[in-house]
Structures are given as structure tokens and as C-alpha cells.
Amino acid sequence: MEFNKIIEEKSAKAWDIYIPNLSVDCVVFGFHDVTLKVLVTRLKDIDLWALPGGYVLKTENLMEAANRILFNRTGAENIYLQEFKVFSDLNRSGGVFDEFPDTLWNKQRFLSVGFYALVDFHQVNLVMDDISDACEWKSIDELPHFMMDHRSIFDKALITLRKQLNDKPIGYNLLPEKFTMPELQKLYEIILAKKLNRGNFYRKMLRYDILIKLDESRKGGAHKAPDLYQFDIEKYEKALKEGLNNGW
Amino acid sequence: MEFNKIIEEKSAKAWDIYIPNLSVDCVVFGFHDVTLKVLVTRLKDIDLWALPGGYVLKTENLMEAANRILFNRTGAENIYLQEFKVFSDLNRSGGVFDEFPDTLWNKQRFLSVGFYALVDFHQVNLVMDDISDACEWKSIDELPHFMMDHRSIFDKALITLRKQLNDKPIGYNLLPEKFTMPELQKLYEIILAKKLNRGNFYRKMLRYDILIKLDESRKGGAHKAPDLYQFDIEKYEKALKEGLNNGW
DNA sequence: TTAATATTGCTTCATAATGAAGCAATAAAA
DNA sequence: TTTTATTGCTTCATTATGAAGCAATATTAA
């Protein structure tokens, strides 16, 4: 079915079941190939890239809405979600739905609640929906041109992620269960957008006492095989309460 | 005019001018008498305490709404505002409007966007409105019993304030232009809810290089007169970009 | 089979920051 | 004039950080 027809059909039902003027947009982060990736979809026909998002049922709260929307996209449940900002500018929609009647659900003024989500890249199975013709991971420095204000939603998500690196279990939710110290460092470097000293990172991470060193190493790569670690989730959560780099 | 009548009259107009299902609630912090205070209002007749809040005009964004609502309450413009969370639970309203018809604006399901505001206590003139019979500052450890979920909105505001102490100009916006080192320390201690070592606080604050020491001291109190300082706002803003206690 | 290579695990040394304690100066009160 | 509590600022011991490097090692090349 073509885009316009789908949109108009959905619109008719939307008024009854969703909270008006409100949507949720999610910046879904995954870590793969020493790169931070983001989930993006392309809308049929109008050929614009967007962040996964959706509306809020009258029967659910925001977190439930975001979970439902992401479950439909990824097949994953209990995804780590963090709300970070409401996008409420009057002109944020651009002119995407200009040719539609004013009663179209999608053409209303929408405020969008931005969530970032952290997923284990390998646990996600991308699911297409009926208004998209593409749904894929893109590296954060090769993002497509986004529709509406989705670029600034992404930007704010990344800034928030950076600020919360010492307060939230970001490594735990982005990395697979077992990982190496160089992988963890790379993740930190990408999020912080700066190089870190290898020896000092190693020393500091170990002193936090939140990692469990496993009796395995990651064979197969060139050069010396790095040790594998996993998070000691109890100690990790406890340390995060105070913040990993406690200021005062 | 009595509460019910006012509410019903307002409701009729509200449907036309406000974005439905959405409100803004503000936790307004002020610092006075070595105490952190919060602005609270009491609703007429139903005799419940609430945070200052209001609805969002169809012609404004959230920040503009919060500014307008607080200007009406305090007479102050350009108040420092920080959005921190959307409160969206289904049962958050309690039963405050049970006896009203279902078409009443206020009885709809509302999501509330929480902002915290920082004001110079002495620059604020409290203004009553027509549905309140009290509007006053309360010390944060002597808060009244709040209606709806306003207590948890306050709690989250304070936690956010604590987390952002190294990233946002919190001291600058809460203190008067001139202040003493012990006052600044007291503010930090209240927000962090813990005692700080005096000499170390002094040394650390000076090393940040964000304060200008004035050629005056605060006379009149008992004992030695403390020096007066003001923020070097340019250096302060610059230092905040990296975070006052940079973790990485 | 052996040597070369890049990476990793971990340490060392110099410097900076922090925690704890205290001394001298001072403004008001006794 | 003396007492008092507070303030400005320093000292010393401890801990954290920045920069650098050495030995071990898994792969690849010779």
C-alpha cells in the first residue's frame, strides 16, 4: 500500500486511541565493530530518514510507550531507556504533511519526548513496519539527513549519554556480556569523543572494582589476545549511585 | 469566587487555547537564611498544596510556557529553567476532580513536564492567583503534603539538581550577586545533603578560578567578617562546559 | 620453524589533587 | 580588655592522575 493511503487510514484510528499532540522518539544506540551505531528508518515514498518513534496510547505511560515502540522494531524487551528532553518547538515538523488535510493526525502540532535506548547490538532483530522501506544501523558519524528535528534529537541524545557516562550503566547495556578492556576503552572514547591513555584507563577501571576478569581471552584477532571481562552488576550499580568519578 | 466555579469557567476556555493533556510543573528553588526553599501554593477550598504549574498555550513551546507561568507567580523574567522529567503515570492525578463532569479540562489525563527553576530569593515577589489562597516559600525539609504526584516531582528535581551541580550554573542562579565562601559551601552542603570539609572546599573553589574576590567583607554577623565574592561568569560558564569535576 | 610485529597487561616515576588537621587573624560579644 | 567562634589559608600525609615504558603474547611474515 502506498504511503499516503496508509497514513490517512492510520490517522482515522489514531484520534481514538492515542494521546493527542504527543509522540515519542527514540535514539537507539548499539556498539558494533568498534563503532557506535544508531537505528534509523526511512519513510516510504517521501524518502526521508527518521528516528524510530510512535504515539502514546491513552492506556500507557511514556516508558511503556517507548518499550512497545522499540519492541516492535527490535523484538527486544526490557530495553534500557532514558528520557532526556521534550522537543516542543512550534516549527519542528517541517512541511512533511503539507499536502494532507488539516484533520490528519500526523499534521497536528506534536511534542516529542526524546528517549535514548541502549541495546546489545547482537540481540536485536530489525523489523520493518508498513510506513518504512528501510530500517538499519548507521554509524554515528555517517548519519543520513533526517526529517523534522530528528538530527537535533540525536545530537542531544549523544550529549546526554556523554554526561551520564559516570552515572548510568551505559557500558553494561551497550556491550555484550563478555568484552575486553580495549573494547570498553573504545566505547568510552567514542562517547566522549576523545582519546584516553590506555594504561591509565586500565588502572582506573580496575580500581572501580566493577569488573570481573574471566579465565578466557579473545583469541582470533591479530597480536596478543586480550582478556575477557564482564561487569559485576551489583558492584557496578552500587558504584553508579555515587557516580564513578564522584565530584564532591 | 469559589473554586468549583472558577475551575469550570476556566475549563470552557482551556479547550481552545491550550495543548490538551499536557501541563508544566515547576520546582522553584531559592536560597535564604542558609536554607534551600521551594515555592508552593495552596489551592482554594480543596486545601491542597501544589507546585506552581499551568498549561501550555498552542502558540508557545515548553520553555516559553514555564517562563510565562513563573513570571505570573514571581514577577521575574528570564528565570533559569531546566527541564528534568515528564510525569506520565496513568494514576498520577489522584481523585482531585472526581466530582466534576468528565468534560472538565482539569479532569483529563495530564502528562506534566517537570522543570526546576533557580531564582535569587530576594528578586522574587510572590503573586497569588485566583485559584490559590496561599503562595509561599517553604524550606525543603518542611514541605507540606502535596496533591497528586507533586511530592515525587520535587524529589526528582532535587536529585537532578544534585547531579547537575558540576555542570550547570546552580550557584550563580541561586545566590545573590555577592556572597561569602561559607554561604556557597552551605548551599553545596544542602544540595548534596552532606557536610564538606571547610578548608578543602575553600581550596577547591579557588582553584576552579571562577570566583572574583571583592574588596569587601560581610560585616555585622558575629565573629570574623567573611570576604565577599562574586562569580566570574565567563570563566564559570567555560569551566562548566567541561564539568567542574571532570571525570575523564 | 623462526623471527618480526603490534597489541596487551601492568608497572614505574613525577606531578597534581584530596583528606585531615591546625594556626593565626579578626569581628563581635562578654 | 578578654573571650569566643568563625574565617583565611597552610601544612602534611595519602591518593589519584598523566606520561612513559617494559615484558608477555598471539598472530603473521619470512
TrEMBL record, chains A, B:
What CDD domains does this protein map onto?
NUDIX_NadM_like
Mind telling me which PROSITE patterns this protein's record contains? NUDIX
Q: Which residues form the Nudix hydrolase domain?
A: 19-160
Q: Which PANTHER family match?
A: ADP-RIBOSE PYROPHOSPHATASE, SLR1690 PROTEIN
Name assigned to this protein: Nudix hydrolase domain-containing protein
Biological source species: Flavobacterium xinjiangense
